[in-house]
Amino acid sequence: IAELVAVGTEILLGNIVNTNSAYLSENVPAGTSVYYESVVGDNRDRMKAVFASALDRSDVVISLGGLGPTEDDLTKEVCAEVMGLPLSEDPHSRKRIER
User: Fold this and answer.
1) Model's pTM, two decimal places?
2) Element (H or E) spanning 88, and its range?
């Protein structure tokens, strides 16, 4: 059972269309069923609730969006918090980004 969680206030406001969820729903690996799709804005508390719920009811949670460089992109921090995992920086990836 898979769940897609699209993050971004711009989706909720209708500024952009969430074509990523449609694409992924059609292209998940064989044997995977997408039972839920959620959209949540860039709000820490609501994101925590949505991801916690998704993790409780699904085997696989795929997050879309909310991973940019701006302050409202909280997805990685919120997901780490919900799962009780620390964030860490990969030095090799950092060097590739800087290049």
Assistant:
1) 0.86
2) none
